[in-house]
């Protein structure tokens, strides 16, 4: 099943702190990055290694393991995805960043891209798409469509909280994509918020609530 809910105690503890009603902007922002970091650790756990011979501190030639040419692009979805970016890049500092932004058309209710600045060689990279909340899944599906149109074949989604509705929508459209989440919550309410969720993650990260 390409949904991975990360049960690690640190992940669950940090997510629990984020659910507090009166959390400060500073704490919410820090925890968003920390969870971005821990989700990245999990989402890259199958990256291949290859042996490399190096000269060690003692002058001896020894064999060490290095990542086998996996090139990554991190894809934050504006605006809230930016909140996870530093946490991801802390672990993969050589990754390139491809930013996308989508708005919802008021008539069709479909997500429409208004900004995309993708790395040129995205067809040769693994994409880690980041957005704290996977709610209806419409924006995520449209983002994955966009990446696949550019030839990107290996796509992983990192979210803090997922709603079952969003997971179903993404996996129905893109069954090859793996989703890494700190929690799979109950449902969406009538306003499209995840329950119990975190509230408006973008507002909490940027302090605009
Ligand atoms: N976006 C959010 O920030 N929160 C939700 O619950 C759903 C979408």
From TrEMBL:
One GO MF term attached to the UniProt entry: uracil phosphoribosyltransferase activity
Cofactors: Mg(2+)
EC number from the UniProt entry: 2.4.2.9
Pathway stated in the Swiss-Prot or TrEMBL entry: Pyrimidine metabolism; UMP biosynthesis via salvage pathway; UMP from uracil: step 1/1
InterPro entries referenced in this protein's UniProt entry, alphabetically: PRTase-like, PRTase_dom, Upp_B, UPRT, UPRTase/APRTase
GO cellular component: a single term: cytoplasm
Binding site for uracil: 194, 199-201
This protein's UniProt keywords: Allosteric enzyme, Glycosyltransferase, GTP-binding, Magnesium, Nucleotide-binding, Transferase
Domain (Phosphoribosyltransferase): residue spans on this chain: 5-208
Protein family according to the UniProt entry: Belongs to the UPRTase family.
Protein name: Uracil phosphoribosyltransferase
Gene: upp
């Amino acid at each position: 099943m390409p949904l991975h809910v990360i049960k690690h105690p640190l992940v669950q503890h940090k997510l629990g702190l984020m659910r507090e009603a009166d959390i400060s902007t500073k704490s919410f922002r820090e925890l968003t990055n920390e969870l971005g970091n821990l989700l990245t650790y999990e989402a890259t756990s199958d990256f291949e290694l290859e042996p490399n011979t190096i000269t060690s501190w003692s002058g001896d030639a020894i064999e060490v393991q290095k990542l086998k040419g996996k090139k990554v692009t991190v894809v934050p979805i504006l605006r809230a995805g930016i909140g996870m970016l530093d946490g991801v890049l802390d672990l993969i500092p050589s990754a390139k960043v491809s930013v996308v932004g989508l708005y919802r058309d008021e008539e069709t209710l479909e997500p429409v891209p208004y900004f995309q600045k993708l790395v040129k060689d995205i067809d040769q990279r693994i994409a880690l798409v980041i957005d704290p909340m996977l709610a209806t899944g419409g924006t995520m599906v449209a983002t994955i469509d966009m990446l696949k149109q550019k030839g990107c074949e290996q796509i992983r989604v990192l979210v803090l909280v997922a709603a079952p509705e969003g997971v179903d929508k993404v996996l129905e459209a893109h069954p090859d994509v793996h989703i890494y989440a700190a929690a799979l919550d109950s449902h969406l309410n009538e306003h499209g918020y995840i329950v119990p969720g975190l509230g408006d993650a973008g507002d909490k990260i940027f302090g605009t609530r």
